[in-house]
Amino acid sequence: MTSILVLHGPNLNTLGRREPSVYGRTTLDEINARMARFAATAGMDFSAFQSNAEHALVERVQQAADDGTDWILINPAAFTHTSVALRDALAAVDLPFIEIHLSNPAQREPFRHSSYSTGLAVGTIGGVGADSYLLSLQAVAHRTST
């Protein structure tokens, strides 16, 4: 059974009410529930973790190296553009991961155009709101079933 860890970065706990014109009205709980349903149907083990603290996300990535995690799906949120520590943790664990974004960073402010982790990722899915998460999970399901 493929084990999926979904990591949600800072401020994603406020989804549904935070800038709905940018991030939509879907809550993080709704995203996690949708992913958990799909994972169960696909025979995947699913867990999710959200933190506003960089060190907590780094520690959870490091833990993934030893807990049977096969894939990481991560929305680093603001840490996309600022966290060398999170990038280094992802490199250190050497697990495949997909970077997720609700919005399209390339269409936003210039400081959002760069990502520390994209170059390490198997792929990046973004710009389609909450569907970005489910599409990333579907991509893993496809890669692990072939």
Strand order of the largest sheet: 2-1-3-4-5
Low-confidence segments:
none
Compute the number of strand runs.
5
Share of helix among residues?
Answer: 25-40%
SSE arrangement, N to C: EHHEHEHEEH
H/I helix tally = 5
Computed over alpha carbons, the radius of gyration is: 14 Å
State the domain count. 1
Largest sheet: 5 strands, parallel
CATH class: Alpha Beta
Q: Give the terminus-to-terminus CA distance.
A: 14 Å
Shape: globular
Tell me the CATH architecture.
3-Layer(aba) Sandwich
Query: What would the average pLDDT be, to the nearest integer?
Result: 91
Detailed description of the structure:
This protein is an alpha/beta fold and 146 residues long. It has a single domain (3-145), classed as 3-Layer(aba) Sandwich (Rossmann fold). It is 37% helix and 18% strand. It is built from five helices and five strands, in the order E-H-H-E-H-E-H-E-E-H. The protein has a five-stranded parallel beta sheet, with helices on both faces. The longest helix is centred in the last third of the chain and has 15 residues, at 131-145.
For the structure shown, list the relevant keywords.
5 strands; alpha/beta; single chain; 5 helices; globular; Rossmann fold
Question: TL;DR of this structure?
Answer:
The chain is an alpha/beta fold and 146 residues long. Helices cover 37% and strands 18% of the residues.
Question: Could you outline the blueprint of secondary structure elements for this entry?
Answer:
Blueprint: E1 3-8, H1 20-23, H2 28-41, E2 45-50, H3 54-64, E3 71-75, H4 84-93, E4 97-101, E5 123-126, H5 131-145
